[in-house]
Amino acid sequence: MTLSIGLIARTLNAPHLRGTGRYVQELLKNTGAGDGVRWTAFGGDPSQPFRVPACLQGRAEVFDFRGDRFHLWEQLGLPLRLRRGGIQLLHGAENTLPVWQPVPSVVTIHDTVLWAEAGQGMPNHRYLHNTQRLALRHCAHVITISESSRRDIAQRWPFLSDRLTVIPHGIADDFFGDLHAPLPAVLRKALGDSPYLLYLGGAQARKRFDWALELLARSGRDDLHLVACGFGAGTAPLDRIPESLRSRVHFAPFVEDGELVSLYRGAQAAIYPTLYEGFGFPAVEAQAAGTPVLFSPVSSLVDLVGPLAWTNEVEDFDGWLASLREVLALPAHARAERAAEGAAWARRFSWRRSVEAHFAVYREVIERTGKRR
Fold first, then answer.
1. 127: left (phi over 0), alpha (psi -120 to 50) or beta
2. Whole-structure pTM value
3. Which part of the chain is the Glycosyl transferase family domain (predicted)?
């Protein structure tokens, strides 16, 4: 039986893909002609590109709906489209769902950060804490991406405890290939032949950009630079960089997947000082690329400690600094051995395996809800 799945894919309907958009795109890209799945990918902004893969098994549908400031695209426009028939199940791949669900619905909640950060007085407080709570009560199943996120979801919404499945993310095939895309020209010019550290995370306080700056300052290497990823246009915190470091800190423009792999492979180490993650792509991606990565084993990251991971407690700066110096002093042969081990370890994170697990959830939900009807 061919499954007809509607997919909320607004994160593909944007100038650039970010974390959740990469997940949505991989679901579509890793669906083959023989899988028996036909997608309808829904976007909400006709003025922006819709970055569905060329190999899409199904169709793309972009429509706007007045009142999106009040979330009416999701809460009214989308359900009206679903009532037209033909779609057996809706997958809200971006953390949220409509309350009115004309077809059985599955949602991926990547983590609970959205809800933790949407406190009283925040613009989206009512939508997340009230509207989405009601939507979750109606949904047939919840997918999440790590055991850590599963525990957080079950604690916040106990009524979901028996409707939760953990399906880890995968790693893009680019990380295991031999192609080497050149770095963006602006970075090539800024770095020259200088060695560099790669910070991943952006401007959010829990990502701790200042921690990476302090590691650079105290590394004992005046030739070492820092490339910072994840900062959108106009958000680079230039005022937080000490004068003594400004010539050695560079903010990466948005990079395509191939450029990102090259950034990892060229780095002396990846610095990932986050305090919480639902999954933690950089912890795996760095190891897949053969690059040592420093992070603290918190939340989902406890499951991502592989052969190229150096871990220390969150506030143990001396431990972090000692790990960095150890990585910088690694002999070439030892680094090469661990790089091979890290790439082999990272292959367990397969997008194809992840997508097949999604299909199993869809089939189970369609069968279960069909019997009830």
1. alpha
2. 0.88
3. 192-331
Q: What is the pLDDT of residues 21-77, one digit of tens each?
A: 999 999 999 999 999 999 999 999 999 999 999 999 999 999 999 877 779 999 999
CATH topology of domain 3-170+351-367: Rossmann fold (3.40.50)
Q: Are strands 3-8 and 164-166 parallel, antiparallel or unpaired?
A: unpaired
Query: Alpha-carbon distance 105 to 84, whole Å?
Result: 16
Cβ atoms of 270 and 291 within 8 Å: the answer is: yes
Which SS3 state, helix, strand or coil, does residue 228 take? strand
- Could you report the per-residue pLDDT of 307-327, keeping only the tens digit for each? 999 999 999 999 999 999 999
Question: Does 173-346 carry CATH code 3.90.180.10?
Answer: no
Tokens of 23: 């997940």
CA distance 200 to 227: 9
Could you write out the three-class secondary structure of 99-118?
A: CCCCCCEEEECCCCHHHHHC
Pairing of strands 293-295, 309-311: parallel
The CB density around residue 185, as the number of other CB atoms within 10 Å, is 9
| H or E element in which residue 125 lies | helix 125-126
